[in-house]
Design a protein that fits this description.
With 255 residues, the chain is an alpha+beta fold. The chain is built from twelve helices and eight strands. The longest helix is centred in the middle third of the chain and has 11 residues. This is HTH psq-type domain-containing protein.
Length: 255
């Protein structure tokens, strides 16, 4: 998008002026003035007074009510800068800080100094966080999402269920400790509708049985006999290896 702030056009007195200068001089929204210029309006038509039907947002500047155009003109700021800060909840004196100083302050203090109104009381986001005992990051994220008022500091009540109590009076956690079965395994069985003895059946572990040298071995027996880690043996079995290749030393090539 082209930047029209550097464009100069004739004022009503015939002098060449920038659109920014005209916006401040005649207290017209710079976007409105730029739109008029793009539509071909010049001279008195360009800077004709604006009759705002809904009025401008009034900003309290040290006890004096001013609209954002007047604030921008008085403190030498861009109109959209003032309006953007106001919409973010920034209030006097931060709203009239020079651009560089405002950036440094936001970087140093963070957004917790942004002003907001909750139940008719004006406070910073940091103060709201402390008063309503909501984490600062939660308040800031809600504010960035456009949430205002009481919803900004609303606490989230998490519904937590109590321990699962079985028919014999013991909890699922106690059963897990007693049977040494993983709690999630018991919980999945419980959710599937299993009760009583079905719930506490020990899970069957898959054991690899391997034929080697005329007998059947478990992987643990092979590991102890040939000094090969069980994990290595298991991977070799899955890859289809057998015989001497199965029990060869680790990191040695296949025969």
């Amino acid at each position: 998008m082209a930047d029209h702030r550097g464009i100069k056009t004739e004022d009503v007195d015939g002098q060449l002026r920038s659109l920014s200068y005209l916006a401040d001089k005649y207290e017209i929204d710079q976007i409105r003035l730029t739109t008029r210029y793009k539509n071909g309006e010049r001279g008195k038509r360009l800077v004709r007074p604006v009759h705002y039907t809904k009025g401008l947002q009034m900003i309290d500047i040290d006890g004096q009510k001013m609209n954002f155009i007047q604030v921008a003109k008085k403190f030498g700021l861009n109109q959209q800068t003032v309006l953007s800060r106001y919409k973010r909840g920034v209030r006097y004196p931060d709203i009239v800080l020079p651009v560089d100083e405002f950036k440094r302050k936001m970087k140093r203090d963070g957004p917790q100094d942004i002003q907001t109104v909750i139940d008719g009381h004006e406070m910073t986001l940091g103060e709201a966080s402390a008063e309503y005992q909501v984490k600062p990051s939660t308040v800031i994220n809600r504010y960035k999402r456009g949430i205002r008022g009481p919803e900004l500091v609303q606490t989230v009540k998490r519904v937590t269920s109590g321990p699962i109590v079985l028919e014999d009076g013991q909890t699922l956690s106690e059963l897990a400790a007693k049977t040494r079965i993983d709690y999630m395994t018991l919980w999945q069985r419980y959710q599937a509708g299993k009760r009583g003895a079905e719930l506490s059946v020990q899970p069957k572990r898959k054991r690899f049985m391997v034929d080697y040298q005329g007998r059947t071995w478990t992987l643990l027996e092979l590991s102890r006999a040939f000094h090969v880690p069980v994990g290595t043996l298991r991977n070799r079995v899955k890859q289809g290896e057998s015989g001497d290749n199965l029990v060869r030393p680790p990191y040695s090539p296949k025969k």
